[in-house]
Amino acid sequence: MRRRLSRRELLRRSAALGAMAAVPANVLAQAASTAPYATLTAAEAATLEALVARLIPNDANGPGAFEAGAARYIDRALGDALAAQRSAYSASLAALESYARSQAGGSFAALPPARQDELIDDLEQGRAPGFAPSSSAFFELVLGHTLEGTFGDPHYGGNQDFIGWELIGYPGLRLAVTAEQQRMDAKLEPLQSSAYDHTQFDEHPTASERDGD
Amino acid sequence: MATSLDRADVVVVGLGGAGGVAVEPLAAAGLNVVGLEAGTRLSARDFAPDELRNNFRGWPQAAQKCNREIPVHRPNASAPDNPRASVHVMMNGVGGTTLHYWAQSWRLNPWDFKVVGETTRRYGVGRLPKGSTVEDWPFGLDELEPYYDKVERAVGVSGQAGNVKGVIDPRGNIFEGARERTYPMPALRGTEFTDLMAGAARRLGWHPFPGPAAVNSEVYDGRSACLYHGFCNRGGCHVGAKNSTAVSTIPRAERTGKLAVVTEAHVTRIDVDADGRAAGVQYLKDGETYIQPASVVLLAGYTYENVRLLLLSTSAAYTRGLANNGGQVGRHYFTHNQAGGVLALFPHPLNRWYGLPAQGVAVDDFADDNFDHAGLDFIGGGNLWVYSDQRPIAAASMPTFGRAPRWGAQWKQFVMENADRWVNSYLQKTTLPYEDNVLDLHPTVKDPLGDPVIRITADHKDNEKRVAAFVQDKMEQWFLEAGAVATQRQPLGTMGVSTHAYGGTRMGDDPETNVVDRWGFCHEVPNLGVLGASVMGTSGAHNPTLTAQALAWRTAERLVADWGAIAG
Hints:
Helix content of chain A: 40-55%
Structural class of chain A: mainly alpha
Largest sheet of chain B: 8 strands, mixed
Number of helices of chain B: 12
Oligomer: heterodimer
Distance between the termini of chain A: 34 Å
Radius of gyration of chain A: 18 Å
Number of helices of chain A: 10
Order of helices and strands of chain A: HHHHHHHHHH
Shape of chain A: globular
Number of strands of chain B: 20
Distance between the termini of chain B: 29 Å
Strand content of chain A: under 5%
Helix content of chain B: 10-25%
CATH architecture of chain B: 3-Layer(bba) Sandwich
Number of domains of chain B: 1
Largest sheet of chain A: none
């Protein structure tokens, strides 16, 4: 909780300094957790971080998927709920890295953003070789998980500082909603809580933790 | 080593939407009832407003019996199997899928019971689609009306009546069949957005109305009114305002002392005696096998499981599966053709972040035979449904209507502006049974116990595709009238695993073409009843649950009234 608040404060300060400009990457890098990834290797994590940072970029409209912790969300989920996709991520991130080296002569994470975007476009169109079953299948997989990690409940490690909810104007969890609050022009105060900040609810083990019973 | 238990009067296999209502009249009549449920009991503490868990990770469906036996689909007998889903669309638990369903609680229209007769009468012979095995039900809406009424009160249904004893009320569905009285609760409130849609429908000359829901619009039977918090879609209710059988009929049955609920009981076979009558069931619990003898067995799983358990229960008397000497188990299968919605983009925020999928506005002008099909090339139609239900991941996963790429800075700009300006619609359409849309046991895919899973061989036929295109046209027209700046039609897809799966143990008087009789008991096995949408022979254009529940209540009452003859 403390880490979350200090990151939020950093973001506020950077926003105040830069007005509408993009949040400086170095400020966010300082704020981002430096703990090692739990499931992915350091090399895999670097590629994934660079990938999610282009899918939902940090720009004049505010922080993006990397800042929201989408890569860390995916890393954690690959250790439990998404464990079945662990090997697909390893193989596909390696394939992306090979593709980057063969097409652009460098590691994907080190390429300029515009070049990274061209390679992601190839992924989306199914043009990149070396992916099983296809690069477009990996693109769909990682895009879906990036959306989960940016806009999902922060309980699962993504949507840090409620970056995702703020981005789309989601006013947050409300356990009771009035007719007035459902008007199209309702001005709702954004509430920033995880479902499990509400102590009336129990957490549950994920499917993979429970499977085999 | 199997443990033999004391004999029950009735064993009910599955305490979901159908089995969960049947136990109430049975227990109230003093019968000793054992209810076997594959899932556990869930409480308000289990129903966190957690989109990731409920809508993406398949909890509480996850890691349940149904998840280990997900059916395999192929569109036709010469096509390869499609990839198997990883999460079942239904769930196990006391209350079953009524815990997390949308709770739309519709009655069928009068036409749905008489598709063959009414189509022939109105349009002449030859208008029934080729290859369809549709039959008229053995009775009409009037026979089922009292049971709809009982269930609407027993579980608690909110809604605006449109036809009470033939008196039409334009605030409700003017096309509904006559009901004896109004709903026990007024309709759920609308929103400014659903009011906007209702106004547009009226300008088009249509007849919009709030849909019926097993959700409390006011305090009912001691349970809270709905709080419209927005996580009802595949989530349970944290205040008990969604009228699952787990909070209504099952607790009442338990309070009689006549219903014993066994949770995490995985029924593996229905046993028969030397005379070919049902003798009871076998189930696994905590790794042990139990034999539960009973005078009457009521099979009340989901459509796929009802068919599967019959086909797995082979014996000397029923070598092709129980009640299947006539070869009808698994036939007359169909779904509800719900895919193929229409999406719309509006030029202003809609504030659909809260509410529930049952808080919406319906148009029935193009459902069933509510309009003239004389100049059309199909029969049937669809219910149009627009509602207030949005969550953040789903909102951000929005279609871009050709106006932005799917990722990157331009996408981000687009989704910032439009995440709350788009809306889906739910279009349920008449779907008929056909001779080659069937369920059977998969030759190779098995559950962890080694029992084959269900194989679905089914696809949409021309009539269903034409209905879908027609209904999508109407939905687009409706959105544009309401001010939408763009619409997008979703593909219909194929007929894979569905939350609205019908048939497989169809009800009818003719034992040559039906598995159960007009009361829900097997023609071949008179002390074996089947509950659920697997007995339904037509879908209409409305959600199946209330009809499955009305039929279940009726079967249970028949059993009580005719106990001696049925139980032997």
